[in-house]
Amino acid sequence: MAKRTKIKALLDGSKVGETVTVMGWVRTFRNNQFIALNDGSSLSNLQIVVDFENEDPAKLKRITTSASISATGKLVASQGRGQTVELIAEQLEILGDSDAEKYPLQPKKHSLEFLREIAHLRFRTNTFSAIFRIRHHLAIAIHQYFHEKGFYYIHSPIITGSDAEGAGEMFRVTTLPFENPPKTENGEINFKKDFFGKSTNLTVSGQLEAELAALAMGEVYTFGPTFRAENSNTSRHLAEFWMIEPEVAFNDLDDNMDLAEGLLKYTIKHVIEHCAEELAFLETRLLEEEKQKPQHERSEMALREKLMFCLENEFQRLTYTEAIDILKNSNPNKKGKFQYPIEAWGADLQSEHERYLVEKHFKKPVILTDYPKQIKAFYMKLNDDNNTVRAMDILFPGIGEIVGGSQREERLDVLMARMEEMHIPLEEMQWFLDTRRFGTVPHAGFGLGFERLVLFVTGMGNIRDVIPFPRFPGSAEF
Ligand code: 4AD
Ligand code: MG
């Protein structure tokens, strides 16, 4: 094919006077003369001016919304308003026809719910192309942050035999037949006959494997898909989501919090610097959407203001115990406004509590530490009080928990006792315990939910709109 130039590279006007070829999808075709062409490189369309008097009328008819075309011609400074440059077409080729009548995306505003049903086409809308360009830049920024700090990117397995979180919310992986699966003498399914000779599942977290690597390579991180069969039908949960999990030898909880706060700020800053057009567009979209809401439900800050606010303020750090005191004495708790009232120390925090702390009390991102051991995973380091663990959760406005992590329990005896208390099968976890047997060191890590970060940065309201093909209870389309 002819060498094409991306539309993004033409918009700054530096190529005016040159003859170029562009390829993309028709957004609109006006007055038989003006094509608005989009090729995904930018939100902006390129205007192509067609010499309709000298063009084959049959070809002009084929320039419909969503048809793909190639156009070659001279780039000129635009006469009209609304664009800096336009292309005077000398050669026009239809690459793929499209029946505009049947094309599901009409040139009007579609609801996000409708677009979710046609997720295979929603990349072609301004909103979703902007979201997925930002998603890309966030992923790159994450790799850059760790690479610049000397971390190694470790690929943890997707199929595992362990439950890293000990929460039992796993999707089973098997090749055994549903009808008449092989049974043991006791009548249980015989997983020795399964593909791996044991029962396996999709990973819920790469943490345990990252710990193995960290206790040899020092500073590592994983960035991969994770799977949870929790029946959470919310705007914050997916059954398949991507997680970033750094793990660092010789780090304690304070180092861990610094690393996480640094990561969030670095990635947000990167998007502000690289996705100005997308952020401006999404900010306007959000303002429009919020006009439908009553005043008290609207955000206090516009999207970019909110991002800057996160960059410029230190995250508020406090213990779970301090947070419970604040919540117990809060107005919504006293007036019975919380769905789950806070009565005593030990209560698990719900999203409504996390959001109260962040949005109403501190009005900035919050890091909560030292949770009761009962509500946290087995691998977290036990404090001297024997009651709390060196956990940390980072809570963000509009999101709630965006990061969950901890300093790890590096003492073999304490870890084994915790595992027994929590009914974690010790025999299957000997490989993990080996790290504590052979040169154990203090270490810490955390998990950042990638989609929750994309949700925050794009200002979208539903996590299903920031991953190309969302998986949630009752839905695994495409
Ligand atoms: O708090 P979680 O469950 O922690 C872990 O999995 C640890 N192994 C992490 C670690 O220390 N290495 O999950 C970490 C983050 C959450 O804070 C949240 O942002 C995200 O992962 N997350 C989800 N995102 C979307 N859908 C879900 N169902 C999620 N569950 C957790
Ligand atoms: Mg968590």
Which descriptor suits the 3D outline?
globular
> Radius of gyration, Cα only, in angstroms?
27 Å
CATH class of the largest domain: Alpha Beta
Strand content: 15-25%
Helicity, in percent?
Answer: 25-40%
CATH structural fold name of the largest domain: BirA Bifunctional Protein, domain 2
DSSP helical segment count: 14
* Strand order across the largest sheet: 6-10-11-16-15-14-13-12
The CATH architecture of the largest domain is 2-Layer Sandwich
Question: What is the ordering of alpha helices and beta strands?
Answer: HEEEHEEHHEEEEHEEHHHEHHHEEEHHEH
Tally of domains: 2
Low-confidence stretches: none
Sheet with the most strands, sense and barrel status: 8 strands, mixed
Describe this structure in words.
This protein has 478 residues and is α+β, with helices and mostly antiparallel strands. The chain folds into two domains: 7-106, Nucleic acid-binding proteins (OB fold (Dihydrolipoamide Acetyltransferase, E2P)), CATH 2.40.50.140; 124-169 and 204-465, Bira Bifunctional Protein, Domain 2 (BirA Bifunctional Protein, domain 2, 2-Layer Sandwich). It contains 14 helices and 16 strands. The protein has helices at residues 7-10, 57-61, 112-117, 126-148, 207-217, 253-274, 276-290, 303-312, 320-328, 331-334, 351-362, 412-421, 430-437, 450-458; strands at residues 19-30, 34-38, 46-49, 68-77, 85-96, 152-153, 159-160, 172-173, 200-202, 219-227, 240-249, 316-319, 366-372, 388-396, 400-407, 443-449. An eight-stranded mixed beta sheet has the order 6-10-11-16-15-14-13-12, with helices on both faces. It is globular and about 85 Å long. Magnesium ion (MG) is lined by residues 401, 404.
